[in-house]
Structure formats: C-alpha cells, structure tokens
Amino acid sequence: MEDMTGVIPCTSTPYSEFKNHIGEEVTIKGAIHNIRDMSDFAFIIVRTARELIQCVYSPDFSDYRLDDKVVEQCSAKIRGKVVKSETRDGSERYELQIHDIEILSTPAAIPPVVISKKQINCDLSVNLDYRPVTLRNPKERAIFKIQEGIQRGFREYLMSQGFTEVHTPKINYAGAEGGTNVFKLDYFGKQVYLAQSPQLYKQALVPVYERVFEIAPVFRAEHHDTSRHLNEYISMDFEMGFIESFTDIMNMETGVLKYIMELLKKEYEPEIELLKVDVPEIKSIPCIRFKDAKEMCVKKLKNITDMKDFEPEEEAFLGKWAKQQYNSDFLFVTHYLSKKRPFYTMDDPEDPEVTLSFDLLFRGIEITSGGQRVHDYNMQVEKMKRLGMNPDEFETYLMLHKYGAPPHGGLGLGLERLTMHLLGFKNVRNATMFPRDINRVTP
Predict the structure, then answer these.
(1) Which of 251, 275, 259 is nearest to 152 (CA)?
(2) Known catalytic residues?
(3) pTM over 0.85
C-alpha cells in the first residue's frame, strides 16, 4: 500500500475548465441526471457537485455503444471530447462528445419524485418526505449552496473583526431564556434541557476572548405550526465586549450583512442566477424605536391587540415602510419593552420600562434579536428576583458577573429565516435542509 500524502489528484474535469480543453479528451464523474433519446443520438445530462454538463452520444463519435445499463441516477465516469456550441441566445457553451461510459453504481429503483425538471413539481410535504432525493434537483441544492455562502460570509467577516469561533454545549442545566419552551431530557437520572440559545455560554466567553461567535443548532419546544417557525434551527450568534453602546452591535451586524451580500454576488453567481435571487444592496440600515413603530402601526392597521410586541402584519407593514421611506430592505427596531425581553437584557437607564435591545426586520420579517446585556452582578441578581427567578439556579452563569465582566452585548440571527426571505419563499421549511417541527422528525 502506498504512503498517504494528503493529496488527492483531481480525476474529473470541472465544466469551468472545458474552455481550456476544446478539441481535447477529458474525463468527468457524476450522476446521470437526465437522458433524452433521439433514436440515432442522445443527450445525456450529467450532474456534478455544482453543475449540469450536457453530453452527446452518437455512434459517429466512437466505437462505444449506449446500452440499458446507462439509466438516470446511476453514477458514472464519462470520457469524451470537449466541443463548443451555441445556445439560442448566442452565448457560448461547451458539451462533451461521449467516447466511453463506465458505470460506477446503479440505482435499485426509480425515484418517486421527478428531479430532472427545472424544479420540483410536488407539494412541500412530498418534497420533504423524499428530501434525500429531491435535494438532487439543481434548484433545490442551490438553496443550500447559498445558505453555505451566508454562513461563510458571517464567519469570514467576524473573524476579520477579531472574533473567535466557539462551540457551546447543547445539553444544558437550565433554559437560557428562563421560560417554559424548552425540551426536557432525562440525562442519567437528571433533568436537563436542549439549548434554546448559546446565550449564557457566549456571555461567559466574553471575558476570555472579548469577541466570540457560533453557528449551531438551537431548540425551541414551541407548539407553533406556522410557515415561519421550526423547533430546531441554525442560529448565527455573536457576542462582543467593551461596547460603548448597544448600537455597536447593530453596526457590527450591518457590516456582517454587507459582507454576506457582496460575497453571494461574487462567489455564488451560478446559484443566484438559477434562483433569480434579488440580493439587496446595503449602504446603511435605518432605525426606529419600538414605541414610534407601534404608534405608526396602530394608525395604519386595524385590530392591533398586542401592544407589547409586533404581529406578523405589523412587521410586513414596517418592511414596506422602510423600503418606501429609506429604500432599505432592512429595518432595526430598538428599545423593546422590558417585559418582553429576557432577564439578561439591560434596561435603559433613562427609561427602565424599555431595554437597550433591538430586532432586525428583513423585508417585513424578524430575523435577528439582540441587545446589550446586564454585566453588573448585583443588577443581574436583582433583575432575576424581580422576574420571579431563583438566582441560585444560575450559579455558574452568574460567575460571569461575580468575577467581573466588561460591558457587552450580542445577537442571534436565524439562518433559515434569512435564507427564506432572501429567496422569496413563503415557508421556512423550503430553506431548511431537513426540517424539524411539531409534525416532522424524518427523514
């Protein structure tokens, strides 16, 4: 057996390199995505990791003869000559004249959903039932390539700003929000909880690294069965110390989103074009206080009953207002009521009824919650007691405050919700690879 060198030679030529091999023989590997048999010749579309490559079979090209072993969804190694052709609009493209096909694996059954069309034509529930198959459709997989770009942009920008990536436990001794919407687990005879948020841990790491971030799943035991809620989703969180104002956090998020959108346009053009994504331009993001936004909603909308938070139609209205008033797809809403924010949120010293906190709306839907945290020990203990919480149950969390913490704050950004609204979907499950909600735990 030869020694391992850590280098794996590329034995499949990517489509992007075809222009450098016109008239030459190359080899590609992929799945047979679609076969269009024209009796005396055939078009065979091969699906590689990110591309569809058109191959042409004809007895005129070589001695190879197409047989019944070549079927859709089989994996194959195809050897052929690169030729240039033109599309109907006159643009150049390249295809492969097949010289040989080596079958690497054969499917045992025909897929229950047609995936070789431009898009999956079935109910969302059917799409999700057969997710390992439907994700092979180019448009479906493009969704999660774009989602990769969002996470990559989040990570790259924050690391450029001195953040350290961390990974916090998902089995916790207490719920981060202090509420009841947590999943309980029997942990070797002890009751523990799945993490609602990395909140308590990322705060604890601020005195260690000053700036931290995490991209990881969180769990909410909420009985929502709506188009915008999941019981497991990916949260992109960051926490930063030595802030002068909670607006520092909002400024950092603005920088993150600018970077993400520019990265998508630069590095994910094939997916952006395939899905016809309207990528927003971000120069700055406007802000409005919760009180002012609520008053505006009450004047413009009818039957507003919740005066402590926004209903979905209010968020939609505010999204349209921000677009009309500022030509912005985003809007920060600040100074939420103290009653509606978690126990670790700092109250405004000038008005203790409100907090130094914010939500970020994107095209009329909330995607982020954040704000400044309480860093003083006595202040945090007093607030816990005022809210009916027992500080003794948060002894390890309060080490942060007891042994000294700088002014700090952070946020959590929902990856699936951001993807959903960026791509114009009506249901967050379209932007979730394998959704988990109150009805679904498979596949």
Answers:
(1) 259
(2) 220, 222, 228-229, 366, 369, 417
(3) yes
